[in-house]
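Listing S7. Sequence submitted for prediction.
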Amino acid sequence: MKVMITGSNNELDQALYIWFRQCREKNIPVTGPILLEKASAFYKLLYPDATKSFLEALAFNGGFAIVVAFKTWLSLVRN
């Protein structure tokens, strides 16, 4: 049984997903650190007035397990 784990921030998830798909279409590899950097950049664009940094918000909402789950989800839906 496969379970899709969704984040609490759909706008950020959608932006990362679109960016990831564009990278995959161009055969650009995406590692965990690259994914974190891009997520942080999107977070700053989407929430310029946020009181927490992206990493603080990520740690508060489940930590780096979310990144692993996101990459797993992307690998499942990319085909």
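Caption to Listing S7: primary sequence and predicted structure tokens for the chain studied. The chain has four helices and no strands. The mean pLDDT is 74.
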